[in-house]
What does this fold into?
Amino acid sequence: MLVDPTPKVNTGEGVDGYASLFKSRFEKTMRILAQRPDSKRMAKIAVVKQNAKTKTFSGERGLSNANTHIVAGLLMSRRTKKNGIELEIDDYTGRMHATAVLEDAKKNAANLALDQVVMLELENAKGVPGLAIKNVFSPDIPDHLPAKSRSEAYAVLISDLHVGSKHFMEQEFIRFLDWLASDDDIVRKIKFLCIGGDLIDGIGIFPNQDKELLMMNASAQMAHTTNLLAKIPKRIKTFIIPGNHDPGRRALPQPAFPEVFSGGLYGLENCRVLGNPAYVELNGVKVLMYHGQSLDDVIASTPGMSYQRPAEAMKVLLKARHLSPTYGGRTPVAPETEDMMVMTEVPDIFHAGHVHVTDVDSYRGTLVVNSGAWQSQTKFQQTMGITPSPGIAIVVNLATMQPYKHDFNL
It folds into this structure.
């Protein structure tokens, strides 16, 4: 299996384009929610509002239980009120507000991402105007046993080289490349390398970036990157996606590097250049590669999230079944006619980067990996209080799904 957004990119125009995008998101995610047993009771927002007003619940589809009602829609807003957390959702028939007052419902409501699809179980409750939220259901991934390689084979996960930056750790990266070319017992079993974007630092990505660059030309940065990646042994199949610092468009989903700006990357015979996000199958193991731009929005808007634990933010995306749910935040989203950021497939490995902090965890059978960076701490990271953990590669035994960190810092 290989899923690449590049050939599907078909950006719409303005308001109509975004209307198509959110319609696609709603319909694709509703098909995921339809697999839940509770969804059989789901009713349209307009029906629930009307029947809640008239108290005539019986006989309506989805409202056979007069005590609770189930609706689903896009999460338009989330507000903390004196008596709980108020959510506003909408579907094709209208919008509604409901408040979570129970502790479990409040906790689940607080962890939702804005603009994701959510399913709510509602009930009448004393002291709560309108309907109260009894339960909050994200589309979520199911508990599952991950696929495993039938033979012992290893995959290496890295991200965020930032070649061209004064902070690019070239010596450590060359040490990593030398290790890949060595006769180490594990290295001999490495079949795959996945690189999660931001190969270069780019030009004009942030104010006064020129003061932090060694190479002032993006083409030169890409050419140097290609020369480094050419050292990867040909037997190691390498998959590469772009990040927000790389050539090409920055809005999600990102097509693969434009060949004219790739610095010869397409000439490397063992490299497959893909868009962001992309699914690849490694000896039967499904790997979702995503650079991770939207982690900024998740960390900023979700209580308890931190740049030092990016795997927790990645779990929010898995629960939402969407890689970039929030519109209008820090992450630019293109008005595609199809929302290609919906996770229609459940990955065995979810691999991201972007935040420059190495973190490994698991969630419902999916291995969650943020593979850090090869760039030392920048002035921007200092001001944000972010302590990166660079110079580390994550190595996964695909036969056992056991990960471990290989540190290339002296």
The radius of gyration is 23 Å. The longest strand covers residues 68-81. Residues 322 and 342 are 4 Å apart (CA to CA). Residues 14-33 form the longest helix (20 residues).
